[in-house]
Every structure is written in C-alpha cells, then in structure tokens.
Amino acid sequence: MVSFQDFHLQRKRMVEKQLIPRGIKDPRVLNAMQKVPRDRFVEKALAVEAYNDYPLPIGHNQTISQPYIVALMTEVLDLSGKEKTLEIGTGSGYQTAILAELSNEVYTIERIKPLLMEAKNVLTELDYKNIMFKAFDGTLGWKEYEPFDAIIVTAGAPEIPGPLLEQLAEGGRLIIPVGNRFSQELIRLKKVKGTYLEKSFGGCRFVDLIGLHGWK
Fold first, then answer.
1. Which domains are assigned to the chain?
2. What residues act catalytically?
3. pLDDT along the chain (216 residues), means of 10
C-alpha cells in the first residue's frame, strides 16, 4: 500500500524529474504542482500511476492530462494570483485545483455532468472555496462573468471559439489546443489593444472539444 507520505515524495519527484528538466520555471506553478494531490483526481486503482508522465483515463472517454502539459498550459497563462480565470473542460478537476491555487477566482465548465459532480466533490473535500462550477457547452464560455483575465481550454478544437475571444479581457491570455481530431498545436493568444498576439507552444493531443463552436 502506498502511503500519503509516498505520494508527497512522488509529487516532489514529478516536479524535479519531469517538470524542471523540461523547462517549467515559474516557482508558483512548481509549488502548486508539488502541493495538489493528483492521486485524488483519478480512480483509486490508478492512484499509484498518478504522478507518472502520461495521461490517465477518468471515464466518459475523457482523460486527465499528463503533469507536464498541465504545468505548461498553466505557466503560459502567466498567472499572478489576481486573475478571474475561465476553464473550459473541468474533467477530473486536477487542472481546476492548480488554477485555484494561482488565481483569485476560477470559473469552470464541463459538458459531462457526472464528471463535473465528481470533480466538485473532490475539490470541495480539498477545501477550495474560489471555484464556481457549471454544466454547459464550454465553447459558449460563461457570459455572465466576463471578461476573464485568463482562459484555458483543455480539449482540442478545430478553431478558437469566437465567444471565448469575446470574453477575454484586455491584456488577457487564452491557451487552447487547435488542430484536427488526431493532433493539435498548443496556441496562446494575448489580447493587446483589441488585437490577438499568437504564440505556439508545440504539438499536443487532446480529447475533442464538443460544442456549438467546437466539434459537433
């Protein structure tokens, strides 16, 4: 049986052996990755694999992303702790927890209601109080609470959903995988004086972003 202490050491090793050598530098991101218990966001049978460098199934044909991708997407959002952050695709809730550590408020949307409820239960047990949840089509964003300083999309899209661009604050950052259903490119947009500055962070592969402005 693996003890809590063993998982603590696994988190430390994950940061030291997977994240830092691959270029993750932001100390706040590294601290959050070392703090949040990834093992709580997967099935108990998979807990011993939670800190390995690959995605894991979480049911409903969805996955929890590998730790490096979670850290990379979080780092390029450049969070200071004051942001109102929108997450599209709650999934297991692990990325949500990392965002909650680094943002003032997190608004998270998941189209699969059972997944959302499971994630909400775990995040509540871990005592996160700065997260709001919604079962909805994430490609439409969350208009009632716009604009958002940061938006993260954790599923692959054929193109960037227009509503998310509209809901991004001036100076805000949006990170999203864009491409076909088999491979995508991780794209960050930064809104500067009403225009969007684009930067690529390499290839990736995510589950499909389903919705009105995603895959049908």
1. 4-204 (3.40.50.150)
2. 65
3. 69 97 98 97 95 95 96 98 98 98 98 97 98 98 98 98 98 98 97 97 96 96
